[in-house]
């Protein structure tokens, strides 16, 4: 179709008889060119709303800034129940400051049945806002109409996917929900439902929820604006190197429910909660802004070597419990079992520099205080947890009880390379017979696996 060379408002909502779903459909099914576009906006400031667009290479291509794409069915028929797919639903082609969707429910786009639901690329593609859409589901948000990739961002920055209230997107039913590729940086994914239905209580799985491949300095969740990333078949989140070894560094994950439904308590497992492969300097939680990583079928957090090292990944301040594998698994090829044996505080060939897990000597209740003594690697900060039962005997951590720095002046009793720690805190709700575990994070931000569980005694 002809490109649009001036600012326009294309408003299907004004069509007589409109009552919330499109009455006007654009179909490119019989067009011969694989470069066909339904609408190509060359000049900024346009609004497109209330259309059903399918059968094109790209339903809508944005070649200008300041446009709003709202209330459309893109790759789906007017009824919102059947696929009429495009190769790309909305293509943001090296331009800034566009809005796809909006916080008002009437601004919601239904973007489903496409190869790529939304594709954003180019070094000038900044500040795109993706709000309030259903991406990969039917009109009701209860059944899958899969995109291959729901949202793809490559060589683009400062995209905001989601937000508070009505700005949250439903990104479910896709092969992959969100992909950030090489040179995707400064992007935020906040407040969305990823792998659930519109209620947030039932699974509507992507194969993988979010994949960062060679992408650095992006944020998944924020304090008070976490995502629900649950019900996905393979991984909730995967962060790794690009196909040519491009680094994935300094990505941050805060405040998310991973394997947990929107209500914050019901199990809605992913296969693996979070998987890092050759990623560095990842921050998975911090004290006061942690994630809940629970009920996943395999590991809660799995950290594996890639083409390069997978070091300086910190896992702190999270609630990690009831996962089918380990709570935190530093996957060492040299280890015969799922838990990496302690070997003297460092083994550079293993993830997170092979940091040893802490050893708790004793956990005692005395005069209303809980006193925990043990040892961990020099320079480390130890986080003590109320332990979740784990068949390996190594705890997961359902609740953080406190942190303490190791005393670098006092050698360990079991490993002379380690140093001792003592944490004394009010006992609170801790009772005799409870079990504790611990994780240590060293001065280089390498976090360990959970240590062996220890029972609280008098």
Description:
The model has no long low-confidence stretch (mean pLDDT 94). Strand 40 (407-411) and strand 41 form a beta hairpin. Helix content is 0%, strand content 39%. The relative contact order is 0.07. It has an eleven-stranded parallel beta sheet, with no helix packed on it. An eleven-stranded parallel beta sheet has the order 2-5-8-11-14-17-20-23-27-31-34, with no helix packed on it. The chain has two domains: 9-354; 359-455, Immunoglobulins (Immunoglobulin-like). The chain contains no helices and 43 strands. The chain has 458 residues and is mostly beta strands.
Structure class: mainly beta
> Compute the gyration radius: what is it?
24 Å
Percent range of helical residues: under 10%
Unreliable spans are none
How many helical stretches? Answer: 0
Question: Proportion of β residues?
Answer: 35-45%
Largest sheet: 11 strands, parallel
Number of folding domains? 2
**DSSP strand tally:** 43
Strand order of the largest sheet: 1-4-7-10-13-16-19-22-26-30-33
**Could you tell me how far the N terminus lies from the C terminus, measured between alpha carbons in angstroms?**
79 Å
Overall shape: elongated
Q: What is the mean pLDDT? A: 94
Keywords:
11-stranded parallel beta sheet, 458 residues, 43 strands, Immunoglobulin-like, elongated
Question: Briefly, what is this?
Answer:
With 458 residues, the chain is mainly β. It folds into two domains: 9-354; 359-455, Immunoglobulins (Immunoglobulin-like). It is built from no helices and 43 strands.
């Amino acid at each position: 179709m002809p490109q649009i060379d001036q600012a326009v408002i294309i408003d299907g909502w004004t069509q007589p008889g409109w009552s919330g779903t499109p009455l006007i459909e654009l179909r490119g099914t019989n067009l011969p060119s694989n470069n066909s576009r339904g609408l190509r906006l060359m000049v900024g400031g346009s609004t497109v709303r209330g259309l059903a667009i399918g059968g094109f290479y790209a339903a809508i291509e944005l070649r200008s800034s300041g446009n709003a794409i709202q209330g459309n069915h893109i790759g789906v028929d007017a009824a919102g129940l059947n696929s009429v797919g495009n190769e790309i639903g909305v293509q943001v082609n090296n331009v800034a400051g566009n809005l796809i969707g909006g916080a008002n429910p009437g601004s919601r786009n239904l973007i489903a049945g496409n190869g790529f639901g939304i594709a954003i690329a180019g070094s000038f593609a900044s500040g795109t806002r993706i709000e309030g859409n259903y991406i990969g589901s039917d009109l009701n948000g209860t059944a899958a109409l899969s995109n291959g990739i729901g949202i793809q961002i490559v060589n683009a920055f400062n995209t905001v996917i989601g937000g508070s209230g009505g700005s949250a997107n439903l990104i479910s039913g896709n092969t992959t929900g969100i992909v950030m590729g090489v040179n995707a940086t400064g992007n935020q994914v906040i407040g969305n439902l990823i792998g659930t239905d519109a209620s947030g209580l039932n699974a509507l799985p992507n194969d993988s929820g979010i994949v960062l491949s060679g992408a650095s300095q992006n944020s998944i969740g924020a304090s008070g604006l976490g995502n629900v990333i649950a019900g996905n078949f393979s991984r909730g989140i995967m962060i790794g190197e690009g196909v040519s070894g491009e680094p994935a560094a300094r990505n941050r994950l805060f405040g998310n429910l991973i394997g947990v439904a929107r209500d914050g308590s019901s199990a809605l497992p992913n296969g693996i909660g979070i998987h890092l492969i050759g990623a560095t300097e990842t921050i998975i939680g911090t004290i006061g802004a942690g994630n809940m990583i629970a009920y996943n079928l395999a590991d809660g957090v799995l950290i594996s070597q890639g083409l390069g090292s997978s070091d300086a990944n910190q896992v702190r301040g999270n609630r990690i419990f009831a996962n089918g594998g380990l709570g935190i698994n530093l996957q060492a090829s040299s280890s015969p079992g799922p838990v990496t044996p302690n070997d003297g505080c460092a083994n550079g060939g293993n993830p997170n520099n092979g940091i040893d897990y802490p050893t708790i000597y004793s956990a005692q209740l005395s005069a209303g205080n809980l006193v925990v003594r043990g040892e961990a690697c020099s320079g480390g900060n130890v986080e003590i947890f109320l332990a979740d039962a784990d068949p390996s005997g190594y705890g997961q951590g359902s609740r953080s009880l406190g942190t303490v720095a190791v005393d670098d002046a006092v050698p360990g009793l079991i490993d002379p390379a380690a140093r001792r720690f003592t944490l004394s805190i009010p006992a609170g709700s801790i009772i005799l017979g409870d079990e504790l575990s611990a994780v240590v994070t060293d001065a280089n931000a390498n976090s360990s696996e959970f240590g062996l569980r220890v029972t609280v005694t008098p």
